[in-house]
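=== Given protein ===
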Amino acid sequence: MTNNLLLGRAAVAAGAIVVAVVEFALLHSAAGVDLAVRSGSSTRQITVAAVIVATVVAALAGWALLAALERLTNRPRVWWTSIAVAVLLLSLVVGPPSGVGGGAKATLALLHLSVGVILILGLPRPRPDRANR
């Protein structure tokens, strides 16, 4: 993997983190959306740290999947896009949890969509050895 590709993918991951943090700040702090998950009698507050960790995990998992697909398949972008879109849709269907209010559900869905779209569109940059084909 070339340095330009590595730096480009790292920039995409960093961009996804920045977007998630800004959205969280705007919707949670500025708009006052309560991001609390209630489970039975307990309540867990979703923090900016949790948003950062989730975004980092998604970016690294996506990057690893894409790298594996680039080594194992002839059409890594097609496979990457298909799998990544399926995972994004699954994350929207499975989460957010049922103990979350309407504003929090919309906020979490927006976070998932924003991060997902950035990673899906940004990570699969053309490789230099394949750019001229």
Summary: The beta strands are 36-39, 42-45. The mean pLDDT is 86. The longest strand covers residues 36-39.
